[in-house]
Amino acid sequence: MRKLITPSSQDKSTGRVHTSEKHESAIRQVQGAANYVDDITEPQGTLHAAVGLSDCARGRIFAINLDDVRASEGVIDVVTIDDVPGHKDIGPVFKGDPLLADGEIKFFGQPVFAVLASSAHLARQAALKGQIEVECEDAILTPKQAHEQQAFVRPMHRFGQGDADTQLENAVHKVSGSLNIGGQEHMYLEGQVSLAVPDEEDRMNIYTSSQHPSEVQKLVSEVLNVRLHRVLVDMRRMGGGFGGKETQAAQWACIAALLAHRNRQAVKLRLPRFVDMHVTGKRHPFSNAFDVAFNAEGKITATRMEINGICGHSPDLSDAIVDRAMFHADNGYFLGDSDIVGHRLQTNMVSHTAYRGFGGPQGMIMAEAMIDKIARYTGLDPLTVRKRNLYGETTGSKTPYGMEVEHNLLPDMIEALETKAQYWQRRESIKAFNQTSPIIKKGLALTPVKFGISFTSKHLNQAGALVHIYTDGSIQVNHGGTEMGQGLHTKIGQIAANEFGVDLSMIEVTSTRTDKVPNTSPTAASSGTDMNGKAVQNACITLKARLASCFATKIGKPELANHVTFTDGLVRLNDESMAFSELVQAAYFERISLSTSGYYKTPKLAYNRETGEGRPFFYFAYGVSMSEVSIDTLTGEYKVDSVDIIHDVGNSLNPAIDIGQIEGAFIQGMGWLTTEDLKWNDSGKLISENMATYKIPAIGDTPVNFNVELFGKENAEDSIYHSKAVGEPPFMLAISVWCALKDAISSLSNYTIDPQLDTPATPERVLNAVVATTEAMQAEAESKTSHSKYGDAFSASEVS
Amino acid sequence: MIRFLINQEHVEIDNARADLTLLQYIREYKKQTGTKEGCAAGDCGACTVVLAEPNADYTSLHYRTVNSCITVMSAVHGKQLILVEHLSSGKKLHPVQQALVDNHGSQCGFCTPGFIMSMFALYHTNSAPNRDDVLYALSGNLCRCTGYRPIIDATLAACEQPADDHFTQNASRTLALLKDLNDDSEIGTTSLLMPQNRVELAQAIRENPEAKLVAGSTDLSLSFTQQLKNIDKLISLSHINELKGCTETQHSLVIGAANPFMDITPKLLAHFPQLAELITRFASLPIRNQATMGGNVANASPIGDMPPALIALNAVVIADNGADKRRIPITEFFVGYRQTALNTGEWISHIEIPFLSDNQRLAAYKISKRAEDDISAVCAVFNVTISDGIIEKISAGFGGVAATPQGCQALNDGLVGEPFASKGCLETGKKILSTAFSPIDDVRATAAYRNTVLANLWHRFWLEHQTDNTIATRVVNHA
User: Fold this and answer.
1) B41, A692: Cβ pair inside 8 Å?
2) Which of A141, A401, A631, B399 has the least CB density, counted as fewest CB within 10 Å?
3) Is residue B478 part of a domain?
4) Whole-angstrom Cα distance, residue B279 to residue B374?
5) Peptide bond preceding A760 in cis form (omega within 30 of 0)
6) What would the pLDDT profile of B172-229 be if each residue is shown by its tens digit?
7) How confident is the model over B135-152, as pLDDT tens digits?
8) Of B104, B108, B373, which has the smallest distance from its Cβ to A238's Cβ?
9) How far is CA B442 from the centre of its chain?
10) Where are its TM segments located (chain B) (predicted)?
11) Catalytic status, residue A200
């Protein structure tokens, strides 16, 4: 007979949901003991790979001479697309992404060959020695060129309500605008990396930093031409993902696997930072335009919007990304009759990809741009215009894509924040400050966020889990989600601890493995906890039912099994109780299975893309933020002085982790809109190619006053413990910074001009907007002077 | 031989590639994987480690952070290398580690070891730091997840009342071990030469004409970590006492070329407090812990960090070849893009900066996309002599405007004799500066922006130095 371990007695139930448990890896992270892929002990004889890149943006390859590469020190193998035994295209949804360049160059820096050497340094040096002869063609680098050449990676999509054209044509009050919106480098601190370890025959084990292990598994199997069941992907943690490792981690895993397969050696491919920045896609730049009609009170009556996503050379996820931009062009506002068109422009750039918000931010900022313009036109305060246009019974509750907005929290949240952060008092004091300060100007803005939660591709809204209880009462949990720092495993651990009523230390959430939970969705769309949490809960409920039945039978009340509870390390029924771990052992001896899988699919989703009508989202997450900034009208330098946020995470599973997500997303969003400036030269080469030339927020950019509060109202929908998704929505709270910068510039015109401020709003762009606003005021003053001899000698020119 | 301690372990290296970085040594040779590579260029701080070095008489240790990814091995000689793995005692976390856990200051955790090391160095150098001290100490560490707020809170909490940790408790043992390392035997290796005086240096250069000189390595190392070049031989300037020191003469401050920037900062700021903005925004703290004034001048970057200030201050470069020294005015030192007036076999020995007189007004301005750890789009330093309200002389230095750091004689010629308070002084200065240079469009800014800002920085200077100015001119005060 098997002898079981004596269970430990410290089965107190801490670590439940709704408490601020520490990140499950925090103690290892601060000791340098949390392993990332590059930290895994390398199998003996591990070799290292590097990729050789193109140095033009578009053209036909007529020769690849790799002699010097092969002759380079330490080189063991070199591969091109011709060496791929299986599929050559690794496009995640649509074709268009060759593993290595396939006859043509599609962007500057496209990987053309891969080299294997005894060390990473030697492989990288060798990779510089390839001679790729290309017949160069004119590259498409701007949205204008893409439109002119009808270059699209996917067909356009359109939806709307009513008849926006007619409404706009007949409107008395209307404004138009356009905005160029910059992209964003993910700048995960851990760059792309994969380790491929060949197993028996054609089997392959992959350790990768990926948000989508199942897709890596599928693509590796296709590239190697083996069945999925022979490829295992193991993913313990990423050093940041942010969307950049959703589809675009797969290429490096596939190349490593190809080289490992050919050479029967473990192969690691870790991209140096500047290579990573050249070869991986970014947040899509957009170039959008609107026409909006409104009444004298600033209430929107009709909206027409053109959304242009600049997708790079291939579709990647751009179809869904531009869709999500379109779905968020309303933000929290009823747009009246609406017509939203979305184009997917093809350019000879790296294929842009998922990034926190997934197109949502680039759509949402247009709604706020419209509101600002209406405010300057009508002379109303922007917050007044915002409030007048929020979804509601009197304004309207149907989105441009036909979904009813239910449970709208924005009116209450805005009211709470404008009171708490004293919007109107600060508005007055800022106006007073600006009147006496000719150089430094302050700006203020309070903007809302309404963000739809669910993958808009319906089939992705499913998740699986695998839960084992061992005979000492410890529990191992596996699920399809990946940990990239967001605290998913911590929340999952809390959910399992909560279900079984045991201490969090009894739960071990393991690495994400394709052999434990198959066919998983990416950890993306903020849905990690919503979906995997429910799947884990589902598995826990199955196991609890078995244990409850065992316990009820044991105490002679099998009919009351439904009333058994699991709390504080105990299993209880009326006055009877038993330690959880003891019951586990009893169940084992009763031959009750202590392992099960769990499953979840998100309910209520019904969007018909053919008609552009329906419900793409299970629910909306909301947030409001207020930012105050100062700008220097001589240099364009600025400072975010103060930020107040109230954000809706439903009934928070872990307040500390949720606040961490909100703060981190806000600062990342602020970086997107301010200092993070992607630049390509005329040849299509990325010139902001490292951390010296591409500036993410540093520690001094964190506002001194940075107050974040959770709204605390539970999700009206049946999500996991009525919490809400939090990964992406707070990113867009940073739009308040952009609006506040514009507000400060607009003060130069006494709030009559809505300045054009493309993003990122670098000091240079701010200064340009200052100059443009000042010149417009001068021109106006001069035209007045020409009619009146009492010209205003002290026009806004005083400030510059 | 290069000798140092890894925590308390004595280590000797007698053959290693000259271009081996400390990070490669830690991760690839010592298989210690807690220290991470984020950029291999000294821009992110994930690789931050701490070097504890003894003072001259081996009675105390000074803890400073460096970016191990751009540090060459000569920099660790005679020091204690402390890694993130060394901080906790068994299961007990170091106070800075515990504080970061308690404040939920790690998310993905990849930047965390670097932050921990910067917090640890602050723990040992500044008790009860304020928020600005914390920002200063962590300016070289990037985090993409948290937004920094919990890290700031954790650092403030941990350093509020720093109790003795095991490093402090073991300090006398560490000092004894370090003293044993620094015996009088030869140091360096055949590929990484480490001369200990100017005669040895001259000889090393003579015998190895192909070898590059290296001091802080914060710029040179990019040639092997980023451009992947092989560097077979280096001559380190870090252990030559004649290149250290920072002395005050009656009329000037004389700075040894190979002093790490942090070591000269107190004296530099004492005499030129107006340079605070430039100095505190000079890269990041770990870079300033390694980088030297000599290296900054010798690499002749067009942006330059300090050269615009040195030009405005009429500094003199003292060059040496082991036999003779000569004085080169800084305005004659930069002869072309990354080219200097140094002859073959010459190195920068010292930099002499004349003190200001009471009637000189000095200000240094740095304009960049990001306030911290960014390279200037434009740097402008104005040094204006005003007697009885009349401009007597203008000496100005600029970075980011041409192939080399520049002065601007036209500004002087156009404004000498003008009353400083006059509107004409403002307008003429702006006009001159808006067309004084022909900068280029690059990744940091357009030429047009640079020209506009140059003019506007004169506006800022003019306003800020009016005796009765009450107008706010800055969104951030760096002084």
Assistant:
1) yes
2) A141
3) no
4) 12
5) yes
6) 999 999 999 887 678 999 999 999 999 999 999 999 999 999 999 999 999 999 999 9
7) 999 999 999 999 999 999
8) B108
9) 24
10) none
11) no
- Say if the Cβ atoms of A762 and B369 lie within 8 Å: yes
**Lowest mean pLDDT, pick from A13-17, A215-219, A286-290, B122-126:** A13-17
Structure confidence at residue A16 (pLDDT) = 83
From CA A293, how far away is CA A311, in angstroms rounded? 30
Query: In the prediction, which pLDDT does A800 show?
Result: 34
Mean pLDDT of B359-368: 97
Contact check, Cβ <8 Å, B101/A437: no
Residue A794: pLDDT band with limits 50, 70, 90: very low
Tell the CATH topology of A286-456+609-749. Aldehyde Oxidoreductase; domain 4 (3.30.365)
Average pLDDT, chain A: 95
Q: Are residue B51 and residue B200 in the same domain, yes or no?
A: no
B368 lies in which domain range? Answer: 360-464
Strands laid side by side in the A337-345 sheet: A152-161, A337-345, A300-310, A286-294, A173-181
- Cβ distance of A664 and B107 shorter than 8 Å: yes
Instruction: Tell me the torsion sign for CA atoms B137, B141, B143, B147.
Output: positive
| Global ipTM | 0.97
The separation between CA A68 and the C-alpha centre of its own chain, rounded to angstroms, equals 41
Q: How many CA atoms lie within 13 A of B369 on its CB side?
A: 28
Comparing C-alpha atoms, which of A366, A399, A345 is closest to residue A156? Answer: A345
Q: Which residues contact A253 (CB under 8 A, 6 or more apart)?
A: A194, A196, A206, A208, A210, A216, A219, A220, A233, A269
Per-residue pLDDT tens digits for A482-498 = 999 999 999 999 999 99
CATH of the domain at B163: 3.10.20.30
Pairing relation of β-strands B360-367 and B378-387?
Answer: antiparallel
| DSSP secondary structure, B318-387, as one string | EEE-SS-EEEEEGGGTEEETTEESPPTT-EEEEEEEEPPPTTEEEEEEEE-SSSSS---SEEEEEEEEEE
Question: Measured between alpha carbons, how far is A732 from B48 in angstroms, rounded to an integer?
Answer: 32
Q: What is the pLDDT of residues B242-284, one digit of tens each?
A: 999 999 999 999 999 999 999 999 999 999 999 999 999 999 9
pTM over 0.95: yes
**How many structural domains is chain B composed of?**
4
Instruction: Output the six-digit token pair for B354.
Output: 């004349």
Same domain, B149 and B203: no
User: pLDDT band at residue A790, thresholds of 50, 70 and 90?
Assistant: very low
Asked if A634 and B459 come within 8 Å (Cβ–Cβ), the reply is yes
* Tokens encoding B467: 């005796």
Instruction: Output phi, psi for A415, to 5 deg.
Output: -60, -40
Tokens at A122, concatenated: 């030697």
Question: Is A462-601 in the same CATH topology as A46-137+192-270?
Answer: no
- Interface with chain B: mutation pick from A22, A24, A27, A30, highest number of B CBs within 10 Å: A30
Looking at the structure, do residues B129 and B219 belong to the same domain, yes or no?
Answer: no
d(CA A372, CA A376): 6
- Return d(Cα A436, Cα B281) in angstroms, integer: 30
Question: What residue of B is the nearest CA neighbor of A42?
Answer: B31
- CA of residue B56 relative to chain centroid, distance: 22
- Considering the domain architecture, whether residues B350 and B373 belong to the same structural domain is answered as no
Residue B469 lies inside a defined structural domain of this protein: no
**Residue B8: how many CB atoms within 10 A of its CB?**
12
Among A728, A775, A782, A798, the active-site one is A728
**Chain B residues closer than 8 Å to A766 by CB:** none
What is the Cα–Cα distance from A296 to A473, expressed in whole angstroms? 68
The pLDDT > 90 percentage for chain B reads 96
The residues facing A468 across adjacent strands are: A476, A595
* Closest-CA residue to A581 (of A626, A551, A549, A606): A551
Mean pLDDT on B400-429: 97
Say yes or no to pLDDT of A15 above 80.
no
Residues A98 and A88: their CA atoms lie apart, in Å, by 6
